[in-house]
Amino acid sequence: MAINCAAPGKLFGEFPTALMPQEILTSGPDKIRAVICFGGNLLMGLGDPDLAIPAFEDLDLLVVIDPRKNATARYAHYVIATSQPFERHDISTPGDALYPQAFAQYAPPVIDKPAGVIHDWEFFWGVAARMNLPLTLKYWNYGMDFEAIEDGLPLSIDTPPDPQTMIRFLCNNSRVPFDELLANPSGVRPQLPEQRVLATPAGHKGRLQLCPDDVVKELALVLNEHNVNAGFAYQLTCRRILEAMNSAYRDAPATRKRYPVNWAYMNPDDMVKEGIEEGDSIHIRSEAGHITGVARADARLRPRVISMTHLFGELVPSQKAEADGGSFTGRLTSLTDHLQPINFMPRFSGVPVNVVLIK
């Protein structure tokens, strides 16, 4: 297997996800043998299913924790159904960065969860307890090194932790005390002091490093690229929609009503040139693979650009995008070629492709 990058290092304490199939399939004492997929659709998110599916089939254990049986769950040894909103203790912390104004809310469960369903934390606590491994709850966020976080709440291996106690701990350093959240079930809008970017102190000579050395090297490589799209007439770009986020909500009735498939949007002039009309089935091929799509005109697109929403369709498709609920654009992506040299991100957008009308 050829990976055209240097040996990977950790980013925010984690290894690049794109290299997971390689680490599963490579023999040795450090081979990945078990994967727990928590609230995600990992196989679809990886792309390149011709490599990813055999890797996941090679695992000794694949556990998927999700209330719905997504594409990854079809290959799992165990699928664990977890509680949903209104069935569990919850807090608004994960949305902090998304709110236009400061807001905090704690909500206890208002209905019982169905029989056979557990809270997500119960799975991890239960496995650790059976292994006699004590856990420590910490307030973690993206980019933080878990081991370096000093404050933690030790959890007993004998008695399941109390959900409200855990959430109270997570609010220890909050601007809104947990007791205030308890007293205001509709939420709290804290009045925070105005924040401003201050002028540089007099005499301060520090400067931001806007272009680290490894980025300079990568840009130099890009500047010297030639004929990178040789043999391909178009570039496939990603397309976000309001009704879905990655593979989440794509099967919601409102989403499917508006998007029965993830249309392959094209510039109208390109459609005329290729003899393609609105609603035609088209064959889209890249270096890595091919998919069947359904064409739709969009005059806002530049010529020679095709725009499609990702994570629709089936991992193993039929020949009809309509029957599959769309087209899985991950089939046009390689997990071994064209990876970014720093973070090993696959080429999910700007993918060179050709388009042919299916007659």
UniProtKB/TrEMBL annotation:
<feature type="domain" description="Molybdopterin dinucleotide-binding">
    <location>
        <begin position="235"/>
        <end position="351"/>
    </location>
</feature>
<keyword id="KW-0479">Metal-binding</keyword>
<dbReference type="InterPro" id="IPR050612">
    <property type="entry name" value="Prok_Mopterin_Oxidored"/>
</dbReference>
<dbReference type="GO" id="GO:0016491">
    <property type="term" value="F:oxidoreductase activity"/>
</dbReference>
<keyword id="KW-0408">Iron</keyword>
<dbReference type="InterPro" id="IPR009010">
    <property type="entry name" value="Asp_de-COase-like_dom_sf"/>
</dbReference>
<dbReference type="Pfam" id="PF01568">
    <property type="entry name" value="Molydop_binding"/>
</dbReference>
<dbReference type="GO" id="GO:0043546">
    <property type="term" value="F:molybdopterin cofactor binding"/>
</dbReference>
<dbReference type="InterPro" id="IPR006657">
    <property type="entry name" value="MoPterin_dinucl-bd_dom"/>
</dbReference>
<dbReference type="GO" id="GO:0051536">
    <property type="term" value="F:iron-sulfur cluster binding"/>
</dbReference>
<protein>
    <recommendedName>
        <fullName>Molybdopterin dinucleotide-binding domain-containing protein</fullName>
    </recommendedName>
</protein>
<keyword id="KW-0411">Iron-sulfur</keyword>
